[in-house]
Amino acid sequence: MKLARLAFAAPVLAFGTTADAVRNPDYLDERPIEAAAGPPARQARTSSWRAPVAAEPAWKAFLARHGAWAALWDGETGIPTRIYGEGIATPGALADAVIAEAAARRVLDDQLALLAPGASSRDFVLLANQVHAGGARRTVSFAQHHDGVPVVGGAVSFLFGSDRLFVIGSHAVPHVRALRAARPITAAVAAAAATTWIVELYGARPALLGVDARVILPVIRERDDGSGVDYREVTPVTVDLAEPRGRWVVYVDAATGEPVARRQTLRFADGTIKYKVPVRYAGSTRADYPAQFASATVAGGAATTDVDGKLTWSGAVAAAVTARVTGTYVAVGSASSATVTGALSLAPGGTASWDVGGTERSDAQLSAFVHANLIKRFAATTMAPQLTWLNSALSVTVNESGNCNAYSTGDDIHFYVESGQCHNTARLADVVYHEFGHSLHSHAIIPGAGEWDGALSEGTSDYLAATYTNDPKMGRGFFKTDAPLRDLDPPNGEWTWPEDNGEVHDAGRIIGGTLWDLREAMRLGLGAPGVAIADDLYYAVIARASDMPSSYVEALAGDDDDGNLANGTPHKCLIDAAFAAHGLADPAGAAGGSIAPPLREERVLSLSPGDATGVCPPPAVASARATWKLRAAPATTGTVDFVASGTGLAASLPDETGVVQYQVTVTFADGSTQVFPNNAADPWYEAYLGGVTTIWCEDFEGAADGWVLDGFAAGAPLATANASDPATAFTGGAVLGTDLGEDGGDGDYEPGSALAATSPFIEIPGAWDEVHLQYRRWLNVEDATYDHATIGVDGTAVWGNLTTAVADTHHRDREWRFQDVDVTAQAADGSVEVTFGLTADEGFELGGWTIDQVCVVAIGAGTCGDALVSPGEQCDDGNAADGDGCSACVSDEPPDDPDDPDDPDDPDDPDDPGDATGGCCSTTEGGMAGPLALLALTLLGLRRRKRS
Questions:
Q1: Cα–Cα 20 to 30 A to 652, which of 210, 330, 575, 862?
Q2: What is the mean pLDDT of each run of 10 residues along the chain (948 residues)?
Q3: How far apart are the first and last CA of the chain?
Q4: Secondary element (H or E) of residue 363
């Protein structure tokens, strides 16, 4: 039994190598690190483009010394996971490993307070110093230790290009504090503790694969009082469970022998794969592929085919050939059937084809051999010729027992037999490509710079399959139809960070979709060379990114040509547009690539194609069209095209009255489109067209007087990278919202929270046809399957966020939105009380409510004498005084009579306060009548609403 392995590899590899596939089975739905006790470890790394307060002095000192740089910060540790910018000149660093290491060490020593607070220079040991990207880049990295013991996952890295240091990464953890075990447990005790824990969890005894030397384990936890890091000296134990299938690194306390945490290293997936062999899946088109580098026996002697499948033998007559599914670069074995061989006759200059398509388990072996060779050669020739792992034989095991599954161990790949739901997964080309992608990712990672992340690997493996097949619909045939398992270019919206970050295969669509969008932009702009550039950037991401947020910086670094990211990169605008569309680029600094949402003034919509959302110009606009419908009569619809207006485009909504819902579709010159609003949960803007009478409004500029706030606050909005809250109020400087940063909040509502903001009672004077609530919102909340954003009036729910069957459509406002809610029924008793509410589960959280300009308005003629100026009235003060020129309603009070000696008003006398027009008030004539009427309206807090 092997009880010890190389201790130096533990700090990085313990977190780095997993076995991934298409989908995890439910029983392995675990966090990246599962703590044995205490608050749970964090589900995913949170990040921000803003320096935390504690890091500001060190960050400012760095900028003062080195110039124009930017940083992406870890939300829990407060350490910059990536720093990138104009670069630091390092002559000779690319060619000379000694120069590069010395330069990296100087910066590390100088910036310890920024990169690894609390650490010393002696805590960092050289981990990697390697040239990559065809010789154009060099990465130097150092592994973090504490008191001589490796810290799991702790490392810093330095990227050189064009003899400049231009990207710095830190996965270090701050202020390491771990008590050393005075009498450490033995390897046997650690192994027994790890085995017992897995038995308790899964009811089956795992096999022991190894026990490593002691390390320091940082467990970054989610806590109600803020996140923190716990440090323990642990002994890592690797165990493997055959049924149910699983493999874990279990970290056992080196002093007490108690399990501290575990990390699952197998991730499974549903899949089917087909094999003359299937082009994409069993039942689809079959084609002959060259048997590349396959072992064979020909004319009684051993031979290996070349890249074109050619064999050479002596003689001028047909030879007997025994074909196999093993070779130089791929070796296929079958778990539940004999390894297949083919008996062929090959004539000189002829061709022989081996087809076992009628036998599932034999076809699986041929299919896996062909497609594993194809994707492996693609990676070796187009992306990573320097990666020596690609020169070894890839072990492929097919026909394993199970249902709709396949997986990678980080080296070899495995596929399951056919079931009633799925084909044999080795007969699905896309799944072979995907599983190989996990193994490629594992070996591409540059230690100390890149880091294994399950969601990142799922998405990049999807991309590898998609770019090879030239089809964003990954996994066709998975469920025995042409439908894909995942679509990297969905027709109805994109997956974005952080709101869609969750289960690793779903979350992977964020980076997978990002890379596909970048590939398509490159292809449209540059043709085939653009696809090659996109594939190179994919490889740069899997080599050096530690998670999805850091992938943006690594894509820029991969595109750089002068070791200076402050002056841009050759394709920065395309990179920024793709990454920003998926929430992965800094919204303050990323280039554009889209246009700003449309503006509305009454019925007129306007677009400003020249106003980009970033520093790069958006693509040229070919056309734009608005589609509308009446909310009260959805069958009443129409479209209107935008036309040139000034420097932009304009269109007019229909001559209708009531709530009109509309969308705007912009078509760019390259054929791509953008639809506004960009919110899959609420894809229609609203506008109220026609006159309304304002009864009551609140803009929160004077706090929220009279409101009852539970978890809400009034004040300036807090724009954060995580919450994507607005940076400014809709009008003025104040809003009402959940978590405006008070008490150190990060902008996201808390897990398990129940929040509410209730208005004062609002009196509804007079009789009206309808009463509506109208307000502006910027709302970010999970699908209502999990979290609920609601509006209640007098205790009755009048609106809530969308619930979907698959629970994956989050409500995501990306701009201030106008919303109209009919509250006529609730206003019938003469008053309303409005409550904005939010309840959250214990999982994923977003930015919640941000609210401005809340109004209650009335529709209709109103009541004469109700002191509200309704449509058709110039004034209405309730006829509080005779002779003031403002009657209860228009033309009700008689005019002055100059011939009546009892009438003291003289219309010819400018000092006479009377109004000879009778019934209509004026603010500019008639003495005090106008000011008195305005005063009455002001005291009632009423004004005529001019816009909705």
A1: 862
A2: 28 36 56 81 79 91 93 90 95 96 96 94 95 93 94 95 95 86 90 92 91 90 65 92 85 91 68 54 88 85 84 74 91 92 83 89 95 95 91 94 87 92 92 95 94 92 96 91 89 78 83 96 90 96 94 95 92 90 73 74 88 60 95 95 93 95 90 85 95 94 92 84 75 93 78 95 91 97 93 97 84 94 96 97 86 95 66 64 57 52 50 44 31 30 31
A3: 75
A4: helix 360-382
Return d(Cα 348, Cα 345) in angstroms, integer: 10
Identify whether the C-beta of residue 170 lies closer than 8 Å to the C-beta of residue 243: no
Sign of CA dihedral 860, 863, 864, 865: negative
Q: Taking a C-beta distance cutoff of 8 angstroms, is the pair 383, 535 a contact?
A: yes
Token match 């309840």: residue? 839
> pTM for this one?
0.65
For 931, residues 6+ apart whose C-beta sits below 8 A from its C-beta are 923
Residues 428 and 271 sit within 8 Å (Cβ to Cβ): yes
Residues 6+ apart with CB under 8 A from 840: 749, 750, 751, 752, 753, 754, 782, 786, 787
Nearest to 75 by CA among 57, 92, 55, 60: 55
Task: Indicate the CATH number of 445-588 among 3.40.50.12710, 3.40.309.10, 1.10.390.10, 3.40.30.10.
Answer: 1.10.390.10
Asked if 277 and 287 touch (Cβ cutoff 8 Å), the reply is yes
Q: What is the rounded distance in angstroms from the CA atom of residue 585 to the CA atom of residue 724? A: 12
DSSP string across 473-520:
EETTTTTSSS--SEESS-TT----TTTT--SHHHHHHHHHHHHHHHHH
d(CA 326, CA 395): 9
Place of tokens 């497609």: 371
Q: How many CB atoms lie within 10 A of CB 675?
A: 14
Other residues' Cβ atoms within 10 Å of the Cβ of residue 526: 15
Handedness of CA 78, 83, 88, 91 (dihedral sign): positive
Structure tokens at 773: 């609530």
- Chain centroid to CA 455: 11
Nearest CA to 615 out of 582, 573, 564, 566 is that of: 573
Instruction: Give the H/E segment covering residue 727.
Output: none
Q: Are the beta carbons of 297 and 303 closer than 8 angstroms?
A: yes
E-strand ranges in 8-121 read 34-35, 47-48, 69-74, 80-89
**Exposed/middle/buried for residue 706 (C-beta within 10 Å: 0-12, 13-18, 19+):** exposed
Is residue 633 classed exposed, middle or buried when 0-12, 13-18 and 19+ CB atoms within 10 A define those classes? exposed
Angle at Cα 69 formed by Cα 63 and Cα 74, nearest 5°? 95
d(CA 870, CA 859): 8
Q: Give the start-end residues of each E strand in 265-418.
A: 294-298, 301-304, 319-327, 330-334, 342-346, 394-400, 406-408, 413-416
Q: Is domain 693-859 given the CATH code 3.40.1190.10 in the classification? A: no
The topology under which CATH files domain 47-170 is TATA-Binding Protein (3.30.310)
191 three-state secondary structure: helix
Contacts by 889-898, CB closer than 8 A, 24 or more apart: 889/864, 889/865, 889/919, 890/919, 890/920, 891/918, 891/919, 891/920, 892/864, 892/919, 893/918, 893/919, 894/918, 895/919
Strands of 845-937, DSSP E: 850-859
